[in-house]
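Training component of the fellowship. As part of building independent skills, the fellow (R.M.) carried out the full modelling exercise for a liganded target. The chosen ligand was flavin-adenine dinucleotide. The inputs are recorded below so that the supervisory panel can assess the work.
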Amino acid sequence: MTDPQLFSDTDSAFRYRSNRELYNARLLFSAIASPWLTKTGIRFVNGCMALHLPIKGLIKGTLFRQFCGGETLEEAINTAKRIHTHQVSAILDYGAEQKDAEADFDKAAHAILEAILRTAGNPSISFVSVKITSLARFALLEKKHYNLPLDTAEQEEWQRVHKRLLNICNAAAGFNLRILIDAEETWIQEPVNELTTDMMMRFNKKEAHIYNTFQLYCHGTLPFLETSLQHAEDNGYMLGAKLVRGAYLEKEKARAWKFGYVNPIQSTKEDTDHDFNAAVEFCLCNIHRMAVFIGTHNEESCLHTIRLMEALNIAPGNPRVYFSQLFGMSDHISFNLAALGYQVAKYLPYGPLAEVTPYLLRRAEENTSVAGQSGRELHNINNEIRRRRMTHEK
Ligand SMILES: Cc1cc2nc3c(=O)[nH]c(=O)nc-3n(C[C@H](O)[C@H](O)[C@H](O)COP(=O)(O)OP(=O)(O)OC[C@H]3O[C@@H](n4cnc5c(N)ncnc54)[C@H](O)[C@@H]3O)c2cc1C
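Fellow's submitted model of the complex:
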């Protein structure tokens, strides 16, 4: 039977962190646990960035060190190697924020391709993630979502988006590397699903190389997961499903309210939890014809998954079932699952500091609750510091 205490082993959780790194992490999580300090800090950073003031050192020594793999691909690969000595692999995530220029989309596609080519055959990298908004203009995706007619220039623009993604998926499949396509705002999700399905039909013939993301905080996602598997079956390819709850709760709510349509998000957290767990069950019951990637920091969801795996006789090391948490968060889940032989990968963003700063500020914001994530992180870090003091570990 699964031990509900299995995430409390802080020795396994933080073995890859030195004492100094743990003290830094404690300081950081203590600071961002305060909503006032976080809000002020975010305003300060945004202000300094707008004025081009030199705050690189401050960000690099705090948020960047905790949540990012490095400023370059080389640094990210080294971080990946470091966590892989504890059986946890990495998902390379080139930190490009939404842009509007074709040159930026080409640059992002080039960076992702470079990551694929440089890491081919490296066991510490299991996936590369792709945000379609790093390859395409948001307004173009929105137009496609609402089925609005594209003029000739836009049709050509769309062909370029398709080509960028095709090149990425083609290279990844050639090197047996898997691609995760992130889910973003619901009002651009149709073309993202369309592109991803096209790639899955091309490259998932025998195994899942390409994964679509399913946000279970939306009402319609569970049925969409079921029809996606049916579509895969009817068209002779393997479905890759990345399951997440969803990250744009407030934005979705605000937009639905502003334009007067029904909020696509579930009415309660409990409804989201229910659908997330139901999606896990659906995927595990169909694991002979699909692959699943469970992206969550929720301990209950992870326990639910491993209990189901035990009940369904799915071996912990089955390569079709991956667990994942963000780098710098929930190490107590990642490293304890990996120690038991489960497949675990950390989302590892990397890139120039200015590019990844918005990502870092979102991590700070998300952790601003003593009752929530940062409280749990602090509790685990303090336990490990205490344990090391008692055993005189360095
Ligand atoms: C590896 C990984 C990859 C990810 N990739 C993506 C991605 O591609 N796209 C994306 O959108 N997100 C992504 N996320 C973020 C994810 O969607 C969640 O926002 C985040 O992980 C928190 O959810 P949880 O399951 O970890 O934890 P929990 O704390 O259990 O859940 C919090 C989540 O529950 C939902 N929720 C909270 N309150 C309510 C409410 N009142 N009503 C309905 N639902 C509610 C929200 O989705 C919220 O984020 C990813 C997360 C991870 C770990």
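The panel noted the following from the submitted structure. Residues 182-183, 213, 215, 217, 244-249, 265-266, 268-269, 272, 295-298, 324-326, 347 surround flavin-adenine dinucleotide (CB under 6 Å). The mean pLDDT is 91.
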